[in-house]
Amino acid sequence: MSGNLLEVTDLRVTFDVHGRQVTPVDGVSLTLERGVALGIAGESGSGKSLSLKSIIGLLPPNATVGGELRFALDREAPIPYAPADVHGHGISIIFQEPMTALNPTMRVGDLIAEGPKLHKGMGKKEAEERAIELMRLVGIPTPERRARMWPHQLSGGLRQRVMIATALSVEPQLLLCDEPTTALDVSIQDQILGLLQELRTRLNMAIIFVSHDLAVLGEICDRLAIMYAGRIVETGPVDEVFADPQHPYTEALMTSVPSFGATTDKLIGIEGRPPDPRDFPPGCRFAPRCDYAQEDCTSADHHLADVAPGRTTACIHPELIEGLGQ
Amino acid sequence: MTTPPSAAYEGVPPTIEPLEVPIGERGLWRRMPKKVWVGVGIVATYVLVALLAPVIAPYDPLMIDPANSLASPSADHLLGTDQLGRDIFSRLLYAARVDLPIGFLGAFLPAIAGTILGALAGFYGRWVDTVIMRTADVVQAFPAYILVIVLVFALGQGARSIIIAFTVLAWVVYARIIRGEVLRVRDLDYVHAARVAGLRNLRILRVHVFPNVISQTIVYLPSDIVFATLALASFSFLGLGIPPPTAEWGAMIADGQPFITTNWWFATVPGLAIVGLGLGLSLIAEGFEEALRG
């Protein structure tokens, strides 16, 4: 199957903070094809998580969302939607914290059965069977027994699997992942990533995976979008972005992460701090921290330009980037 | 891309994770400290006395015997008689039939009302919140005792008026506690997840929010029963509670007060009855708090 599943155009999230407008997500546009896994990388505060949550309408009440969201349910072309339209239909989300993502007063089997009961009109018995089936699908051993358990009786990894099962219970075509592996230890993290990868292929489900962890994104994603200060600064296939970054921020981000096996490489931090959303610098927002910054950078309009097939960058001087190869 | 999807899908290799001993709901009761059971024992005794008063009491609590007024404790009258010659012991037992129901209802009704209103205010926010919480402010702005006096005058003296007055007053506390809790829980991931799953507001509130805030009400309720009982005694003492000649602890204290120098037990014993009930309920409240708040 091909065709766009989700189209986000000029997404803006604005908060009114003591009478001042703060815009932590400032003009994000992205398209997602069916079955594709898109990763969104960025530092804390880059707006990646807010962007994800606005797709499904989980922003705090004092937030205003601008721009257009279009989603293709079933096989039709993408049409504009309000977040409430896709609740329980087509889009699901999984969260970072397995501790707070499961209702502590419900047995996990009942929790998973909520969706099927509501949307498939299943009876109690049928929904319970469906819940056990879903628990088996996400690799929970002895699901019949665990369905009767409370969340506090499960380990972090199992809780995360329960959360995924709950998300899958409404048979989504798009699964939003808000750093679902960050709170897990590395071996469990690997299992969950493997699980998501399998489920995606099996269910032909698209994924948007938000994380600050490039290694995790590299493992699960087809395409990558790099966010900085509320904007997407670069997009492209994961391997190509990793091999040949077309934005200085992407490059800086990668040199600040240790790569496995390369013991001699120095880690290079990014000078300065991410800008305050209350006071973004003019022009390219990365310019004040950029090694390649030119005079015209501080007056450049934000615009994602094609640099190669399937690749875009917001940098106006991508030719200056030396690359990682040295 | 590291894990190629296998053709024969058998689920992801099951992970062997340590399994905690399943404790389920029963765990909560097992976690209750001993003091809860002591408290329950005390309160149960009071309830039993109230139920069995007609059987245990040696005299009719309303029977006047002017010839034998203000008698000292004796085999005939365990705690002596009051100024009208009524048996104090019998009156003490019968009073439990008045004080307990009013104390419990006077706490349960505001607990129910306040919990529901607080949950609605916190969950729906906006004008629902404004209306409910501003009403709470208004109620709280009145001096409590004046409000009860006004209500009792308006509704007529008696148990019903007292319970209504307590409900009108005390729901505010529950509403505030629960509203705060709902505000906290409302933004937890599992509530967001339920919303994304397409559950309706009322179901989210009932299934995902309510069970997670209700413990606050349960913790506060036993101490509120103490307050209600004490308040009832105070109003009766002031002559605003249960009209005579019905036996009631507060009224008995008031009756006994003039004779405190000669017949000290007259006013003291009903006071001790209230203290004992308060102790039992406080033990329960404290134990609940330890068990539920960890």
Question: Can you describe this structure?
Answer:
The complex is a heterodimer of chains A (326) and B (294). In chain A, the strands form two sheets. Chain A has an eight-stranded mixed beta sheet with strand order 6-7-8-3-9-10-12-11, sandwiched between helices. A four-stranded antiparallel beta sheet of chain A has the order 2-1-4-5. With 326 residues, chain A is an alpha/beta fold. Chain A has two domains: 4-90 and 174-320, P-loop containing nucleotide triphosphate hydrolases (Rossmann fold, 3-Layer(aba) Sandwich), CATH 3.40.50; 94-171, no CATH class. Chain A has helices spanning 48-56, 83-86, 108-119, 124-137, 143-146, 156-168, 186-203, 214-220, 238-243, 248-255, and strands spanning 4-17, 20-33, 37-41, 63-71, 79-80, 91-94, 174-178, 206-211, 223-228, 231-237, 305-308, 311-313. The longest helix of chain A has 18 residues, at 186-203. Chain B is an all-alpha fold. Chain B is built from ten helices and no strands. In chain B, helix 2 runs antiparallel to helix 10 and helix 3 packs antiparallel against helix 8. The longest helix of chain B is centred in the middle third of the chain and has 37 residues, at 88-124.
